[in-house]
Structures are given as structure tokens and as C-alpha cells.
Amino acid sequence: MTTSAHPETIQVGNGVESDFRDIRTTQKEVSTEKDCQHERNTNRGDSLERECESPREAGTLKGLSLASEDSFPTALSMRLAMVRGPDRLPDEGLQEALRGKLRVLEADNGEVTALFSELSARLLSINSEEDSIVITFKTFEEIWKFNTYYTMGFLGQCMENLLLDQEFWLNSLDQDEAAIEVSVPEETLNLMYKGILMQEGSFFGSCTANQMFDSSTSGSDLYLEQGDIAVFEPPFMGSGWTVQSLVDGARGTKPKPALEPVDPFHQWFLKSCPENILVGSGKLAYDFPFQFASGSCVTTMEYDACGPDELSFECGDIIETVGLLLSCFEWFLGKHERTGNVGLVKTCLVKPTDSLCESADTFLDEEDRLLFGLNDECTKAETIALLNKTSQSDIGTVYKLDLIERQDSPKGTNGNQNGPYSVNASNHEELRSKIDQILSELKEAPSSPADTMEPCQDDGEASEPAGGDGVPCFTVHSEGEGPSHDGFVTLLSFLNCADYKPEFHCLYDHSLQFRHLLFSGHADDEELVSYLGVARETARKKRQFWAQSRICFLLGKMCARKSKYSQARVYFEETLSVAREQFTDTFLLIAVYTNLAVIYLMQKNTEKYFAVSERIAALLMGIPNYICSTEKEPEVYSKLEQSPSAAPFIERLQVLTEEFQEPCGVIPSHCYLALGKVYSAKYLPHLAVSSARRAALHPSATLTDCLTGVGLVLENAHRLFGVGKQGVAMPAQVAPYLSRVQSLAAAYDEDHALRHAASLCLSQLFQKHGMLGRAIERIHSLVSSGLGRSLAEANQTLIYLAWLHICNGQQQQALDVLDSLLASTPENCTTPQEGVVYNLRAIALRHSGDIKQASHSYQEAIDICEEFDSRHNWAIALANFGILCLQAGAKGLAETSLVQSVEFFSELEDEGHEVNFITVLLELGQFYIHEGQLEKGKIYYEWALLIAIKSNHSECQLKATRRLCDLYRTVCPDEAQCIIYNEHQLTLVRKTGDKSQEGEILETISRLYLSLGTERAHRSALEYTKRSLGIFIDLRRKEKEAYAWLQAGKIYHILRQNELVDLYVQVAQDSGLSTGDTHFILELLEVAGDVFFNGTQEREKAVSFYRDRALPIASALDISVKLGDRLNERVAFHRLATLYHFLGQYELAEHYFLKALSLCPSPLQFDEETLYYVRVYQTLGDIIFYDLKDPYDAAGYYHLALAAAMDLGNKRSQLKLCTRLATIYHNFLVDRELSLFFYQKARAFATELNVRRINLSPDQNFRSTSMYRSNAQ
Questions:
Q1: Which of 326, 356, 402, 974 has the fewest CB atoms within 10 Å of its CB?
Q2: Residue 923 backbone dihedrals phi, psi, to 5 degrees
Q3: Residue 313: CB partners within 8 Å, gap ≥ 6?
Q4: 768 and 166 in contact (C-beta within 8 Å)?
Q5: Greatest pairwise CA separation for the chain in angstroms
């Protein structure tokens, strides 16, 4: 029975159509991969490899024994570790920063949930203390996808995109590369996979041994060999395992079969296929020793061809394989040795000869080129255009506002603090000479358009000239003036050829180019169809069968284009039936069968589809460079919108490529980029960006790969950073790509446009994040390599360089650049750009302290604005002049200039001026506040806020709101107004994701509500305090946390909820003590005393804080530190440790006891010092053993105490310590040898000291330290 008899349409996965033929292909692939996996796992070490360098082995979810039916885990814990450098060593500083980010996400895990949803997992919890994230899965498909992403190294990179700050990516360019390493317990993942498969019911498994099953369908038992794949069903209600053979559908049972599930990819693939395709009754099995064979074979019986595409032969004839013979296919393409004919041969009718061998050549290079190929020039042009658009700036046309300290040094940093870049005198002169030379050359060069590259057109839209080389062109005559039958002689003679000719290329192509290349004179397709119909009839009458066959093929394609599928099928079938001799044009045969297969699928004629698909597969294995589709396939798939369905297969291909690490036709970087495009189309931004990064960092990556990666990152930027993070045009994640693009472009000597775009984008990224020195360095490198052939582009770049120098405090370098620009301008022709230069020059002069020259430059800039009526620039120049006047002390002139600037801004109607307008309003408002005109100042602040709200500028809203908060808090106090604006500020800060600022604003609002003095306000204050407390706990800001606990206790005291006051004050005290900062502890204790002292009840409690706690500690520590007396300092720490011990703060007690020990002299000078060691270490052992329940660490302290006791010769202490060590090793650490050793030592001391009994029972000794704490003290 052949596969053509199966009646069902094949639908694989997410709509991927498959011509699946026989399960043996999958069986062998699974078996082969399983053997390779076993070999790899045998040689595999225990060290965790970095994901982005060496992907995890594929198939990690295999090797499971399903003989046992134990309980399975339902959660998977992923551990995150920050590593740095080529050796991937842990970095504690970065690890702590990562831990802090995880703490924040513990309280607000929306972003993490969204990420793991993209990774096909479900978030359960985040444990920042263990640096872990716990996830789970509901279906085996989720485990399969997650494991695939883990195998390809995406998990760590996705976590980096989520958890690392933007500055990290910029800092990593000049440092050892840091990364997040994700560790997944594979055994747990294996068990979860097994458990979910059993929960879902039946699954596909592979037998791990030859075994017999009791038959449940016939009298004979079912026998399966090792490696056979079958459908297994777990036991139900006490029954045994049920198995169904895929060969004939026979069923059997067994209590505990030896099996393992197939890997998740094959599990998904097999489950996607209908049962009647996988399970067949008497499927043909071709007993062939090779999977991919090439060479010669011999026929086993006589066969008469049933059609012109098949070979006729006699028994014993030699058939040479054309291409490859696949043992799982019904047909292969062969060449008859005696006759030389080529045609299809049934695999079951041949057997191998000595010359037949396994072939490793699967000649998929052409298909790989079509799937993964990149157009270098097109990609480069598109990326340059995208980078230019992203980095587009108005630096050369719009004046800059002179408020550098507040606007262009974010986070209060400058170039000297972030990536310093200084130029010595000789280098500076050389750079200045280079600038003068460039400007001089560009000024003298003839004017020409900017040297830019426009994105190229898509290949599918490129037009081709009619009548290509060697292709004749036939005129189509309309009906009524059509030629006689003799008029088709030329056309029929051209088409009536048995063999393939290059001129037939356009006939078989999917794009229907023949309509314009081969024919002309027709108005539409209907005229062409009529013409071809007459030509077909003429060919039939003249018995020119090959011409008739090709014309029928063309008519079939025209009908299919009009969706007339039944009529098209008739024409295609006639194409095959009309031939009277051997089909030698294999390309025509492939084209006909391909089109027929599509029509059969659309008409749900699965029987014929299977028959045709078998033949297509054989032909494609023989003729890989088929031309019926050529370069149009990607376009067709794109238009069908089925590219996302290819993701599982591209992922599998990539996993296998990386797994076997052998040279093959697939370039890994191209495969990653293809995946990135698919993920981007499926709106999976984290995976898309991770794919791009894997491609760009892969050793095989080319310049085109990096450019494509840049495009993918920018395309998904708004999806990754647009929600809740103030959408950014260019994320810092693109910096590594741009840096590598620069390196590769320099190595390949690429044109200037690409290097200019990459350098400018990198410089802007550095400027945005306050790394001004590094931003300047990029532009200096660009200037050194030349500024291109466009004067406008060079001028704009140099203006930007001057502005960077001004922001970086390098005024003289900025003035040199600006003076060079002024010197290169035409003498008798003023341009608006001159005004930009004069404005920047004035700013540089003001910061240099040259007020007079700065005012002259501002006047020049204002005059140019007036000449060109540029109101926007005029307003900025007036504002800058007003700021200059303020510096000079001319307040009246400053006010006039600023007010006039505001008037100009208010008259502007175009967009893009709002940020500058808001800034000037705030400056004018601040001027009036300082002058005591509070009402005017408030009006300008509120005006600025309204403009910011209207223009939807969050940063400007934040600035204006902060000014109003400061106004109502300090200048003219108004708690109600201050609360309103602080709450608005809180809303804005939340959008930025800055948790630290959010906590501080909540703390401020709480204090404001508390100052109102009403019960309702007190309860609101308590609510805001608790919210700030949660944030400070997440951020591990212990001092803020302690004060928040204390503030909550204070409010409860005011609200007379006394039962909670002591609790909150105690927790605040504990938090303060955990900081180890004595001065802070003292301050906190005093504030805690103030809570009761300033209240109306329980004032006596304040005495405890003032006298009994704060004062003794302060006095002892203050005196010991001032005198430098280590003994007194040690006593103070010992007392503090004893106090914590008394309070039950055992960790702090341990900390201060160790501090006290660290102050002991070394070597020890007196026996009393050794005795102190014995007692303190014994006390530490008691705390750890009795109170913290940690026998292991307690044993360490007891060992140290015993060593000191032995040095001292104190036998009673040695007896006590040996007894406790014997107890620990006997009852807890279960070390019989050590237990016996210490017991014998204790017995010897007991005999010597006349102690009758030694009790090692843990029940008697395992009691709290509080029972004897008073004695210890």
C-alpha cells in the first residue's frame, strides 16, 4: 500500500503543510540524534557554559525512563548569575545590582510575567535572596519552546534586556563583557516534561529495548524492537501501559515497558499529524541499508512505465541514482545505464550494489540561499537610512538654549566622570588643521547633492526588459485579426522541444514573467488566454505534443492566477498525459507536479496530493536547482503570511547546526537573523532582539548581519521600551552592534555614509546617558577619517562636536571648532547656520567668563534671526541673552529679554518648540521667585506645567511639578497645594520606573499629610508611609526602611493604636542596628525616644531609649574611638554584642562578637586573652547551635574554642567542648569517626576531672540559649 491511499489533508503545527510520507524517516532521525546526544552527555562536564558562546545541548528532555510512575515536579527554579570576562567569573558587585533589580520586580512583576509569557512559560515567583525565578508549564509545547530558547542561548539575553540598565550596554563596550548566566536544572525539566506528557495522555515514545507486549487486538503478541517509535498511553485506574504500533496500528499492553519519550520537537511534529497518516495498515517498508544513498543499484523485477516520467526496465538492469535516493521515499530519480533515459524508479524495485554508499551531501545550498540570503547593498542602504532617520537632529538649524548644567548632563555627570576624553595640545592642533582642511576642500568642491544612499527596491518589484537574451517575443493578435494556423509556426517550433532550454526559464517561474517577456501586443490576460487556446488546438492538430504540453502548462498557470482551480487542474493533467515519449525536461515536470500538488491541497484531494508529492520529493532530491520558483519563493511566502509557521523548523535547523558543530551549508548568523525576522513578525520583541544579538556576536557574522541586527533592534525598540519606560527612539542595546559595524566597516573599507551614521548614533547614545567624553571621542574619530563629500553634513557634524565640547566644559576646543566654521562661510552671503554658530560661540564665551564677547555674539545671532524672520531661534537667542544679563547682574535687562522671549514663544504655532518654551518659562518663574515676586513666579511655573501637559512632555511636566512642589514646601508653605503637586509628581515618576524617587516622594507626601493634624490625614499618612516602606525594603535601603518603620509607629502612637506602636518601633530598631552604623543607630534611638517623649501617653518609655540604650553605647564607642584604645573599643563591641544577644538579635550578636575578637592583639600576650577567645567562641557556638539551629557552623566555632582551650591547658573547658562536638557529630552531622574521637577525648577529661557521666543525648542539650543567657552575661 502506498501513501497515496491516505485520505486526509496533512496539517502540521501552526498551519505548515507537509508532504509527510513515512514515519521511518523521523524514527531514524530521532534514533541518530539520541545516539549523538548520549555520546555528548557522556563526555560532558559539570561546568555551566555560557549561553551566548556555547548553546546548550539539544534534546536535553530525552533519556527518561517511564518505568516508574513517581510524582513529578510542577515548578522549575532558574538561577541567575552575573559573570564577567572570557572566563565567565562571578562578579559580586554586579550580582548585588541584579539582586536589587529582582527585589523591585518581586513587588511589581508585570514585565517579568510578560517576558516569560513570550518564552512560553508561566511565572510563579521571584526570589531575590536566592537570585532565582520560579516558573511552570501547562503543556508539553510550552516546555518544548522554552527548552528550545534555552538551548539557543536566548534566556540569558532576554533577562539582560529586561534587568540591566541602559548604561550597562554603553559601559560594556570598553570593559570585559558582562552577562547574565541562566542555570536551569535539566533533570527537573526532564521530569516536568515526562509528567506533563503523562497528564496529557498518549504520547510518542521510543523503545529502549526489544520487548513483547500482550496483544489487545489479535491473538498474537505485539513485538517492538529497540528504537521503534510507538504511541504509548500511561496506566489508568490500575491498568498497565497501552502501546499502539505505527506500522499496522496493532495495540498491546505491558505493566512497565522500557521506553523514553521522543524529544519535544518530534513529539510536536508527530502529534500535529493526523493518526491515519502516522498509523497505517501494512505500510510499505523499503528495506534499504542507507538513509541518503548515491551510486548505482540493480533492479529486482521487470517494470513497464505507467507514464512518460517513469523508467521501464528489466530484471537485473543497472540504475544510477540521480541526486539522492532516500530510503523512506516511494520513488527516486534514476538513469538507466543501458539506454541513458532518466525517470522515476520505485525504491522497492531495486537493491543496492557495491557502488551504492551513504551520501552526506544533501545539496541544500540553493534552498538555504533562498531562505536565509541577504542582499548586502540593499541591507546597507536601508540601515543607513534608518540610522539617519533615528539620529536626525536639528542641531544645525535650531539654536541651543544655554542651560547646560540642567539639560545636557543627565544624572549630574560629565565627560570627565563618564569616559574621559582629553586632547593634548599637539593632537588638538592636528585636529583643528584637519577640520580646516576638510572645510576648505568641501567649500572649493562643486556643489552636488549629499552623498546618501536610498533604500533599494525589493527584488520582487524590479522590472525586467521585455525579451531577455535569447528569448523570442511573440505578438498576440486580438480576436478577429488572429493569424491562421500557419501563423503559430514560430511559437510552436520554439515550444516543441523535448529537452529543457534556458529560454524556458520564464515559462516555469512563479512570477508569470512569460506574459511580458514572451508575448506582446495583448491588452489583458484574457486576450493572452484566447491566443494560447488557439495555439493549443493548432499544436494538437499538428501532433506537436511538447508544444501542446507546454501551452497547456501556461494555460493552467493563467487559470490558477484567476482562481479557476478546476480548469487549471485539467490543463496541468493534460500537460502530463499528452507526452508520447520519455519526459526529458525535468524542470517542466517539477513545475507541473508542484502546481498540481497545490491545487490538490486546495481542493482537499489528498489521495492525489500524496501521489504527486511523492514524485515531487523524488524529483527535488534529484534536481535540487529547480527553477519553477527561483527567487520568488520568499515573496510568495511573505504574501501568504506564513513565515511565522516556519519558526519551529528554523529553530530546529539552528539547534542541529550548533549541536553537531560540523561545516554545513547553513550559516548560523543567517539562521538567527531569519528567526529574528519571524519573531518580530509574531510580536515577540525579546526573542527578536536576542536572535539579532546572537547573529551579530557569532563568529560567522558579517557586516550585513550586524546591519540587519541593528534594524531588528530598532524595529522592536518601541515594543521593548515603549510601555512604562518613556518610549525611546534608540535603545542603548544597539550600541554593541554599532560598535561592531564600525570595526567591520573599517576592515572592509566601506564608504563614509555607513561609518558616519554609526558614529553619529553612538555619539548621541553616549551624550544622552551623560558620557560626554566618549561621545566626543566618537566624533573626533569620525573627523579624523573624513567628513564625506557634503558640506552641509560636515557643518552639522562640526556644530554637534562644538556643542559636545561646551557641555563637557571644554570651551576653548568648542571655540576653535566654531571659529573654523565661521572662517569657512562665504563673506558676502549670510546663512541661517551662521546664527547657530554665533549662538553656540556666545554660550562658550559666557562659560569662559568673557561676558563682553558673548554679548557681541548673541547680538550677531539675533540680527541673523531678524534678517530671516526666524521667531523660534530669535526667542532662544533672547532667552540666552537674558541668562547672560543675570550673570552680569543686569536684572532689569535680563527680565526684559526673558519676557520678550516668552512673548515670541507664545506666538509660535508650529510644533517642536515646546521644550525650549517650558524651560524659559521656568527660568523666568525662578527669576521672579528670587526677586520676591511670588505670585508672578507661581504663574510662570503653572504656565510651564500646562504647556508640558498639553504637549505631552513627561520630563518637562516633572521639572515644572518639582518647581511647584519646592515653591509650596519652602518658599510659600501650603501643605494642601504641596500634596496635590507631589501626588502628580508621583504619577509621573512611576512612568519612569525610578523606584528610589517614588519611595522618597511617598515619604514626602506622608510627612505632608501628617502635618495637617487631622485623623483622616494621619490615616492617609500611614498609607503612604507603608507604601514607601515596601519600596525601601525592596531596594534594601536600610536607613530609609528603619525611618519608615519608625514613622509608621509614630503615626500609630498618634492614632492611639498602642498595641502596634512597640512592634513597629522594635522593627525599626532592628533595621537600624542591622546597618552597623553606630551614629545612625544613635540617631534612630533618639528619634524612637522622641516618638514617646513628644506624645501624650506612655512618655516613660522614652527613658529606656535615651538612658538605657543610646547613652551607654554612644559614650563607650565615642571614648574608645577618640582615644584609639583598642581594648575599650573591644569592650564596647562586646557589650553591644551582649545587648543584641539579650534582645534575641543573634545575627547581630554574632557580628559584634566577631568585631570584638578582631580587635584582640596577635599574637596573644596573656592567658586572659586566650581565655577570652575560649569563652567568646564557645558563646558563638552556643548561639549558632541552640538558637540558630545550625550544627555545622556551630561545630566550627567549637573547634576554634577547643583550640584556644588546648593552648591554654584548660581541661574543664576542653571537656565541655569535646562533649558538645561529640553530640553534634553523633546526632546531627552523623560522622561516627569524629563522634567517637571527641567522645573518647571527653571521657579522658571526665576521668581526670572525676566527672561520672557524659550525656550525648540531643534532647537534654537542645534548648534555647535564653535559659542560661543571664549566666553568660
A1: 974
A2: -65, -45
A3: 299, 302, 303, 319, 336, 345
A4: no
A5: 135
